[in-house]
Write a structure and sequence with these properties.
- The chain is of the alpha/beta class and about 475 residues long.
- The protein has one domain.
- It contains 13 helices and 24 strands.
- A hairpin with a 2-residue loop joins strand 3 and strand 4.
- Helix 8 crosses helix 9.
- The longest helix has 17 residues.
- The two termini are about 25 Å apart.
- About 50% of the residues are buried.
């Protein structure tokens, strides 16, 4: 069939990171989540008492909050959570040079292109394996300018005042059930601070790998971009395929201060046995500019909605999202923008592709508070169905409390049409290549923004699982 041929040609369903590295962790907590597991995590990290108290309070919030009934199907998740390991420590300490990383872990990241990418163009690299960052480095030129790029644990130890000032202020435990879970068991992630006026010409990169079966990963990242600063952070994720299910629930908190600019790029390529439930939010102050570039290509279920809270005048938020849902996948993605100050602007562009029995959903919120006069925003969500059994849904929420606001929304759902195919075939193009060209054209507005030039491992990851179809 032509559809099958084009999918094969584009490698949409080929998962390239299904390798498993043998290695014995130095510690692994018992299965499931309870107070003892939380205490063990805090003890292994040598945390101050206030952090343990924070974790235990968050655990109680998690236990009281009901499982969400909207979004994807979470009916089997509680059984999964009883069987996963919430904390696995792969080594005793984090390496700051590649030679310090254990060989079996190095082998994994070498296959993924690290540290090859770092040697080429990246400003700094962090690599997380299971529950901990195993490697973190920052180029000396940026260290001298006051840039901080630490693991989240080192951020707490080395910069306690700055850490405590911002930790859990953008996303508190009360925000949602899985933010509370992350707050109780967070482990790994990055702590980033860009000083006033500093502009990183090259991006920072973090990479997350789940290797063990029945594994839960709960990284937490805090990024503070000070006044007039400019930076870009790239995150990539993979996991091998097991017959049992795994779980990932990260929290990303970003503060963009006055006249600062920041871009956060996520390329998620989890295996199809992964539940991926993530909370990402940026607080954007006066004249600040925040961009989310969000790629969702793997997992069993993804629920992820990057958010911008525009709290200062002339702040700008932008969300570019692309999702691919193949057989057995549900990508419930989108974005959220809150206009809470005058003269703020925003844009959400979402593209999704569904194939086989895959399902993609756009879920977004655009809110303009009273007093946020002269706010301007536009939302665009487009879906492409490339089989008769695939499904797409759109759940846009628009709440406007201010009369002086300009808001637009448009959505489209389309199939690859016979007329399009006929036209291209009449020009001597094969049917499978014609379909490939149509798909490339559909994703081009977002694909052209992907930072393919920055890192070898992203080239392997991204391609939107389509050989030669981006760039």
């Amino acid at each position: 069939m032509p559809q099958n041929e084009v999918i094969k040609d584009l490698n949409l369903d080929e998962y390239k990171y299904d390798f498993i590295t043998e290695g014995k962790p130095v510690f692994r907590a018992e299965k499931g989540l309870n107070e003892e597991v939380v205490r063990q995590i805090s003890q292994h990290k040598g945390e101050p008492e206030w952090m343990l108290e924070f974790r235990l309070k968050a655990l109680k919030i998690y236990q009281k909050k009901p499982m969400p009934t909207w979004g994807g199907d979470l009916s089997g998740l509680e059984d999964v959570l009883d069987e996963i390991y919430f904390y696995v420590r792969p080594q005793d300490r984090m390496g700051h040079t590649w030679d310090e990383v254990p060989q079996e872990i190095k082998d994994t990241f070498e296959k993924l292109g690290i540290p090859e990418a770092e040697r080429k163009i990246l400003a700094g690299v962090g690599a997380q394996y299971e529950s901990e960052m195993v490697y973190h480095s920052l180029r000396e030129e940026w260290t001298k300018k006051g840039v901080i790029f630490d693991s989240i644990e080192d951020g707490l130890k080395n910069h306690p005042e700055l850490f405590r000032e911002h930790f859990a202020t953008v996303i508190p435990p009360q925000d949602n059930k899985f933010a509370a879970m992350n707050s109780a068991v967070w482990s790994g992630g990055s702590f980033v601070y860009i000083p006033p006026g500093v502009k990183l010409e090259t991006p920072l990169q973090a990479y997350f790998r789940v290797n063990q079966e029945r594994m839960g990963q709960f990284e937490r990242t805090i990024i503070i971009v000070d006044e007039g600063a400019n930076a870009h952070y790239i995150e990539g994720c993979t996991a091998p395929v097991y017959s049992t299910e795994s779980f990932h629930s990260g929290v990303i908190e970003i503060v963009v201060k006055k006249n600062a600019r920041f871009r956060y790029t996520t390329i998620q390529n989890w295996s199809n046995n992964m539940y991926n439930l993530v909370t990402q939010r940026a607080m954007v102050h006066e004249g600040g500019h925040m961009e989310w570039l969000d790629g969702n290509l793997g997992s069993k279920l993804t629920m992820k909605y990057p958010s911008c809270y525009l709290v200062g005048e002339h702040a700008h938020g932008e969300i570019l999202s692309i999702a691919y849902a193949g057989d057995g996948q549900h990508q419930d993605t989108g974005g959220k923008v809150v206009h809470a100050a005058p003269y703020t602007t925003s844009s959400i562009v979402s593209k999704s592709i569904s194939k086989g029995h895959g399902r993609s959903s756009y879920r977004g919120l655009l809110k303009v508070y009273e007093g946020a006069h002269h706010a301007r925003s536009n939302v665009e969500c487009d879906a492409l169905l490339i089989s008769d059994t695939s499904r797409t849904d759109t759940y846009p929420y628009i709440e406007i409390e201010e009369n002086d606001a300009n808001v637009g929304h448009e959505a489209s759902v389309s199939k690859i049409g016979e007329e399009q195919l006929f036209y291209l075939k009449s020009r001597g193009i094969s049917e499978s290549e014609a379909m490939a060209m149509i798909i490339r054209g559909f994703i081009e507005p977002i694909a052209k923004e992907l930072p393919l030039e920055y890192a070898v491992e992203l080239n392997r990851l991204i391609e939107l699982e389509m050989e030669g179809s981006v760039g």
